[in-house]
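Async update (no meeting this week)

Hi team, since we skipped the sync, here's where things stand on the single-chain job. The sequence we agreed to prioritize is pasted below, unchanged from the tracker. I ran it this morning and attached the output directly underneath so nobody has to dig for it. Comments welcome in thread, and please keep replies under the output.
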Amino acid sequence: MDTSSKDKISSGDASRLATAEQQLRQLGIKLPAPPLPFGIYVEAVQTGNLLFLTGMLPTAGREAKFIGRLGAGLEVEACHQAARLAALNALAVARQHLGSLDKVTRIVRLGVLVATSGDVHEQPKVADGASELLQDVFGKDKNPSRLVYGVASLPLGVPVELELIFEVSA
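Output:
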């Protein structure tokens, strides 16, 4: 590709040309250490070309970084940031399991559980905290299907829990 062609690539197109690992560097994102399980389970299970992640929480080390429920002490923006942190933890687990996020060929499913105080309808805005990060790293062409649930309570008192399924190369 000549220089003039490169100049014509929009930022959206450029992100599709970069690998996931390159995108992380370009975005200045350093993934946290993968979280350790809080119980008797593993963080990731691969069967064939599918990688299933356990529920990802907005934690750092063994500590919840966000506590509370949407509409009862936490606003949309805080819960949005909690979803982003949970997604960063998910990427850290996927990278640890795969060796590189470049092995992700597609994000199949993103499930987002949002702890709410009851009559709250902004769960999709919270889920976008995870969806935006995943799109920034992998590009729009790998966006997953998504389910968003409002629930009464989540582990450790956190406002958000993510479930992810990735398609991966051999």
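Quick observations from my side:
DSSP finds five helices and nine strands in the chain.
The longest helix spans residues 76-98.
Reply here if anything looks off.
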